[in-house]
């Protein structure tokens, strides 16, 4: 997760309706058009002078500068019709996803203005149908219309714009009341308070106060493996049924009739349901007919377990545990998984037990995580220092982990590095001297480790305290395999490194160091860049009468080197 540094960031705002833009008609609130005009009258949302100077179109607004060297420019797309979100369905959410797909390359982030009533459903659905996100998608809205004097809409929308504009958080998120949540972890918990949402089983990804605090360990890494995929296949015949004490088996049977293909049941406590044989029989019969049932707890916090016989009975009937998923996320996941073409029923059931978009905390991983933590590093460190508490052990791990990750990257020990990932450690953390594992692996020329780190989405252009990027360190080590990997992942030499290249190239030409020259060329250096005395590497080689280096430089400058094997 990185902070965006471009001087201008472009966002697309999709306005779908909701209270934020509502007006009163006949004493009730209805969706209102013309949100852009309202925003244009508010100085915090639009800098008219800048927009005019830049020749921006009517529907394009620009925020006042959030930092001296960056502007957030945004275009508002007003949907037709606008909705009270109680009327939104999967059809509208698919349309939003397709709008994002259509404009994906033009904008660096997306803000979806949505009614709050079904925003958690919308965020959950979008999180599944948008796969391989590299850019932030942030839903927001309000409890009170933005044009009224005392409202939460301004703060929420401004926050969503700033988060999407300034940070690269490649997830579907929900911003409300100074908190950025993972969208598929949210639920609406209050119909009146400004703090309308919570994320019961996952801390916020970011919190805005005097400072913006990003919970970097939680933010999912952008996928480098694939392009954005917008899934169109979703199953609409899915439902949600809350169990209550004494619910009759006949009602459950009626609910489970065709065309229903999937059901989320909200059970009691840690996933417990009535154990009446007739009710269990209805559930079992539906599962045998191929209906997929997922168990979620109706409690706000906690997870489905099989600690109780009444919980184990649910699993015994073939119901899939939803662990700590919200019902909104479970319903969206069910719709997505059942809508995927070409999968067997077993494949679908297996997919439902996996963590697809950070929507669930899997207990197995948890157990493994804690046993690994307690059983190995954390426990040993705690023991060594005479500490027994998990908290202290965790704190020590936080301090040691960056150095440990660097030491492992230094030796090129891929398996241990992978184990650190499984323990949940962030491999992009900087250790001493601002060094990341990528710097270390690049300096040492460990191609496998570099490949793994890049797949995990670590920042490729980060600089250590000496101002060196991983690419620069790979060049210094003449590790051409690593240079190739870093370049393919978007690494470039910084303006300073490019400027310094001239003198270094001359030095290499003087020493007839062909490998060094090739490494610089491969990293993108301009071979004609003059050294400190104004002469280029070619002049130096010619003056020294070194025909081989002269030929090499001419070839590389002419692009012939590109065809040569590395
Ligand atoms: N606060 C809101 O946005 C509620 C409204 N009924 C909606 O969901 O569209």
Automatic annotation (TrEMBL):
Substrate binds at residues 85, 116-117. Keywords: Acyltransferase, ANK repeat, Hydrolase, Lipid degradation, Lipid metabolism, Repeat, Transferase. In the N-terminal section; belongs to the asparaginase 1 family. The active site is at 19 (o-isoaspartyl threonine intermediate), 19, 116. The keyword Repeat applies. This is 60 kDa lysophospholipase. PANTHER family: 60 KDA LYSOPHOSPHOLIPASE, L-ASPARAGINASE. SMART domains: ANK, Asparaginase. ANK repeats lie at residues 433-465. It catalyses: a 1-acyl-sn-glycero-3-phospho-(1D-myo-inositol) + 1-hexadecanoyl-sn-glycero-3-phosphocholine = a 1-acyl-2-hexadecanoyl-sn-glycero-3-phospho-(1D-myo-inositol) + sn-glycerol 3-phosphocholine; 1-hexadecanoyl-sn-glycero-3-phosphocholine + H2O = sn-glycerol 3-phosphocholine + hexadecanoate + H(+); 1-hexadecanoyl-sn-glycero-3-phosphoethanolamine + H2O = sn-glycero-3-phosphoethanolamine + hexadecanoate + H(+); L-asparagine + H2O = L-aspartate + NH4(+). Exhibits lysophospholipase, transacylase, PAF acetylhydrolase and asparaginase activities. Can catalyze three types of transacylation reactions: (1) acyl transfer from 1-acyl-sn-glycero-3-phosphocholine (1-acyl-GPC) to the sn-1(3) positions of glycerol and 2-acylglycerol (sn-1 to -1(3) transfer), (2) acyl transfer from 1-acyl-GPC to the sn-2 positions of 1-acyl-GPC, 1-acyl-sn-glycero-3-phosphoethanolamine (1-acyl-GPE), and other lysophospholipids (sn-1 to -2 transfer) and (3) acyl transfer from 2-acyl-GPC to the sn-1 position of 2-acyl-GPC and 2-acyl-GPE (sn-2 to -1 transfer). Monomer. GO terms for molecular function: 1-alkyl-2-acetylglycerophosphocholine esterase activity; acyltransferase activity; asparaginase activity; phosphatidylcholine lysophospholipase activity. The keyword Cytoplasm does not apply. Residues 237-351 form the Asparaginase/glutaminase C-terminal domain.
């Amino acid at each position: 997760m990185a902070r965006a540094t471009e001087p201008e960031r472009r966002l697309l705002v999709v306005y779908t309706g909701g209270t934020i833009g509502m007006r009163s008609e006949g004493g009730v609130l209805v969706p209102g058009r013309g949100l852009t005009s309202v925003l244009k009258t508010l100085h915090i949302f639009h800098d008219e002078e800048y927009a005019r100077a830049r020749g921006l179109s009517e529907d394009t607004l620009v925020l006042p500068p959030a930092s001296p060297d960056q502007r957030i420019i945004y275009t508002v797309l007003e949907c037709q019709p606008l909705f009270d979100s109680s009327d939104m369905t999967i059809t509208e959410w698919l349309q939003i996803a397709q709008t994002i797909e259509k404009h994906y390359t033009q904008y660096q982030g997306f803000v979806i203005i949505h009614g709050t009533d079904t925003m958690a459903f919308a965020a959950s659905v979008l999180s599944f149908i948008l796969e391989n996100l590299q850019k932030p998608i942030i839903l927001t809205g309000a409890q009170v219309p933005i044009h009224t004097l005392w409202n939460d809409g301004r703060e929420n929308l401004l926050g969503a714009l700033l988060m999407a504009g300034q940070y690269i958080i490649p997830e579907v998120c929900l911003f409300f009341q100074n908190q950025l949540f993972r969208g598929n972890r949210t639920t609406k918990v209050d119909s009146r308070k400004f703090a309308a949402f919570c994320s019961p089983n996952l801390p916020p990804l970011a919190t805005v106060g005097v400072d913006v605090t990003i919970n970097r360990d939680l933010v999912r890494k952008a996928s480098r493996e694939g392009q954005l995929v917008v899934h169109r296949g979703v199953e609409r015949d899915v439902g949600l049924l809350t169990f209550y004490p004494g619910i009759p088996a006949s009602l459950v049977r009626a609910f489970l009739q065709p065309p229903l293909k999937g059901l989320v049941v909200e059970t009691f406590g840690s996933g417990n349901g009535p154990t009446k044989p007739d009710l269990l029989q209805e559930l079992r019969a539906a599962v045998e007919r191929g209906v997929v049932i997922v168990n979620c707890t109706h409690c706000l916090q906690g997870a489905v377990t099989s600690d109780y016989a009444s919980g184990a009975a649910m699993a015994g009937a073939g119901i899939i545990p939803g662990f700590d998923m919200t019902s909104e996320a479970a319903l969206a996941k069910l719709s997505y998984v059942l809508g995927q073409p070409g999968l067997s029923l077993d494949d679908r059931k297996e997919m439902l037990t996996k963590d697809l978009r950070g929507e669930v905390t899997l207990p197995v991983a948890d157990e493994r995580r804690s046993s690994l933590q307690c059983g190995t590093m954390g426990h040993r460190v705690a023991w060594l220092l005479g500490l027994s508490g998990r908290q202290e052990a965790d704190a020590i791990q936080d301090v040691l982990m960056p150095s440990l990750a660097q030491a492992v990257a230094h030796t090129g020990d891929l398996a241990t590095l992978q184990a650190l990932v499984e323990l949940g450690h962030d491999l992009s953390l900087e250790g001493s001297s601002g060094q990341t594992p990528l710097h270390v692996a690049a300096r040492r020329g460990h191609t496998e480790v570099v490949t793994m780190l890049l797949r995990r989405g670590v920042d490729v252009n980060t600089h250590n305290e000496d101002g060196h990027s991983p690419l620069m360190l790979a060049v210094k080590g003449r590790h051409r395999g690593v240079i190739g990997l870093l370049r393919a992942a978007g690494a470039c030499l910084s303006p300073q490194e490019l400027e310094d290249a001239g003198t270094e190239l001359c030095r290499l030409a003087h020493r007839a160091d062909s490998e060094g020259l090739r490494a610089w060329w491969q990293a993108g250096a301009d071979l004609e860049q003059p050294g400190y005395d104004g002469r280029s590497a070619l002049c130096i080689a010619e003056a020294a009468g070194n025909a081989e280096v002269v030929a090499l430089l001419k070839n590389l400058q002419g692009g012939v080197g590109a065809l040569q094997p590395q």
